[in-house]
Design brief:
333 residues; alpha/beta; Rossmann fold; Dihydrodipicolinate Reductase, domain 2; 2 domains; six-stranded parallel beta sheet; five-stranded antiparallel beta sheet; 14 helices; 11 strands
Length: 333
């Protein structure tokens, strides 16, 4: 009688072993059915905690892409990651990324792969909190009325410090010291990071062809907020939040925007948004759905990435955009 063959491990190549990449490799060590072929790094001599299973580090992308069934991109940036993932796609690999900037700004390249279900990107929005799958899955059965979200943890921290009476510059310096904000914090504090994430979500539930250039002019961050202004809102029973919103534009389409807003103290984003990312989806059939959880952090982000790798390894397709623009205002009471 023939001996049953043992299925080979799914080969996973990883581009990037920074904070999130290292956390992912520690999680991957739990999964013997997944073989890490190689990991792209800039510095081979840097000390890293990559978990119990040895991995091969390289500075040559070719060693990562060659023979990989799934390629994970955790490099950051826009153009170089897109180029490497285009090569991986051309070789037939499934793609996994947490790169919201590349997804938002290079839709010309990523769009066809996403539409084909070849990309997992749960961790690109709200890290390990499962919002991408929900928006592209169960919530699609209910036609969108509006979406509001808190999508940037750095800004949530800064607003919390302003509520405590700390000045903006001092709060930002402390956020940088704690590692919540980068040395150049512009992407966070100017609302760009939140806008990238909102653009990704909008294509899943409202408009598959929404261009980054249509979103960018409607983005304003938290610079200019003061402890006095924030305190005045608190005294009035309200809270200030950096809200990423997708709303009807009055002409049958959608307007995506990011800006500080004053919301009632019992608003879901005020209730859920204390130190967490949160999203409120309003649909004609489902009503109001709240989703909240950790929107940043290496382990939480790596969890979302690993979920996509596991899906790819079993052949489950990634989330896809809506087929056509959803008319706004339809189904509203």
């Amino acid at each position: 009688m023939p001996v049953p063959s043992t299925p080979r491990a799914v080969r996973v190549g990883v581009l990037g072993a920074g904070t999130v990449g290292a956390a992912l490799l520690r999680l991957l060590a739990r999964h013997p059915e997944l073989e890490v072929t190689a990991v792209l790094v800039r510095d081979l001599d840097r000390q890293r905690d990559l978990g119990a299973r040895p991995v091969r580090l390289t500075t040559d992308p070719e060693e990562v892409l060659a023979g990989a069934d799934v390629v994970v991109e955790l490099l950051g940036g826009v153009d170089r990651p897109t180029e490497l993932m285009a090569e991986a796609a051309a070789r037939g690999a499934r793609l996994v990324t947490a790169n919201k900037a590349a997804l938002a700004e290079r839709w010309d390249a990523w769009g066809p792969w996403v539409r084909a279900g070849r990309v997992g990107f749960e961790a690109a929005v709200m890290a390990g909190t499962p919002v991408v799958g929900a928006i592209a899955g169960a919530l699609r059965a209910s036609r969108l009325r509006s979406l509001e979200a808190l999508l940037n943890g750095t800004c949530a921290y800064l607003i919390g410090e302003l509520e405590a009476g700390v000045g903006f510059d001092a709060a930002l310096a402390e956020a940088q010291r704690l590692g919540y904000a980068e040395a150049d914090p512009a992407l966070d504090v100017d609302g760009i990071d939140a806008a990238h994430k909102l653009t990704v979500l909008a294509r899943l539930c409202a408009d598959p062809d929404l261009a980054w250039s249509d979103v960018r002019p409607h983005v304003r961050g938290v610079r200019g907020l003061t402890p006095e202004g924030v305190a005045a809102e608190v005294a009035a029973g309200r809270r200030v939040r950096l809200v990423a919103a997708l709303e009807p534009d009055g002409a049958g389409g959608w307007r995506a925007s990011v800006a500080p807003r004053s919301v009632p103290a019992d608003h879901p984003l005020a209730v859920l948004g204390a130190g967490r990312s949160a999203l409120v989806y309003r649909g004609d059939a489902v009503g109001e759905v709240w989703i909240a959880g950790p929107g940043a952090g290496a382990e939480a982000t790596a969890s979302g990435v690993l979920a996509d790798v596991l899906d790819a390894a079993t052949g489950r397709p990634g989330p896809t955009p809506v087929a056509a623009r959803v008319p706004s205002g339809v189904g509203a009471p």
